[in-house]
Amino acid sequence: MNKLSTKHLLGIKNLTKQDIELILATADNFKEVINRPIKKVPSLRDITIANLFFENSTRTKLSFELAEKRLSADVINFSASGSSVKKGETLIDTVNNILAMKVDMVVMRHANAGAASFLAKHVNAKIINAGDGAHEHPTQALLDAYSIKQKLGTIKGKKVAIIGDILHSRVALSNIFCLQKLGAEVLVCGPTTLIPRYICALGVKVETNLRTALEWCDVANMLRIQIERQDIKYFPSLREYTMLYGVNKSLLDSIKKEIVIMHPGPINRGVEITSDVADSKQAIILEQVENGVAVRMAVLYLLAGRN
What is the CATH number of domain 138-288? Predict the structure, then answer.
């Protein structure tokens, strides 16, 4: 089977294990393409894609844009800060105006959870969720899974610890769904105030001691503290958080095995992770960025139905 079971990519929750495996296998082909001297293929030559970012983004926005251009698609970039949204235009009206320009696919990041699903019900275009509030970030989870598979050969049976601000993280939720579907064990670690109450219902382990989490895992995915989403204080200070949950080289060296270190970015160096860890050979942070382009090319290609 070389077709996705869904018309849109709204979240990992909506994908089957076969969907995920198909995306990762297709990404292998595009990884080879982006490492060629000529990095372009004509796969989406007559497809128009609109990137709608209602929230700030650097990596995800650039990664999608590059993936689209590598596939020869026509690209429209939309940023809410300089748009009619500021004048009170609704999301549906904004998108319908863009679709009136004959757009085939929409990549959207929005501050509200469920915004991409809402859009998919009301507009006639393929929708890709590039992050909706603290809900899901499916392409990040796919590129993280791809990066683990590339580094360790397989995901099945591996132990992955997600460490940091679980409560406000869309990356954590998408990663949990994705890794579990591919047969990994998942543990979340952080202060109790930053671990959601429902998390045990998802079948993950919960740990509040960082060393215990690191000794358990094969892969540690470090999340930043999302100050911009926090309406109250969840811990006394960043300094105290770093003392308890920051990963530094001496802590890593004291663990009796080599752990793979990941980070979805942006990194707050010296808070959740020190520079000597971020830049160490155990870290695959830049590989994640490179793999993000290949994985997003695979998603766009498969949803466009060109296979």
Answer: 3.40.50.1370
- Residue 108 has, within 13 A of its CA and on its CB side, a CA count of 29
- For the CA atoms of 200, 203, 208, 209, what is the dihedral angle to 10 degrees? 160
Region of 165 on the Ramachandran plot (φ > 0 left; ψ -120 to 50 alpha; else beta): beta
Topology alike, domains 12-136+291-303 and 138-288:
yes
Token couple for 86: 């500021």
pTM check: above 0.85: yes
Token pair for residue 100? Answer: 């009136």
Within 10 A of 268 (CB to CB), how many other CB atoms are there? 17
Can you say how many angstroms the Cα of residue 17 is from the centroid of all Cα atoms in its chain? 17
DSSP H helices, 110-247, are 115-122, 138-152, 170-181, 210-216, 238-245
CB contact at 8 A, 161 and 208: no
pLDDT, tens only, 264-302: 989 989 999 999 999 999 999 999 999 999 999 999 999
Place of tokens 């995901």: 155
Instruction: Give the domain ranges of the chain.
Output: 12-136+291-303, 138-288
How many angstroms separate the CA atoms of 234 and 13, rounded?
A: 28
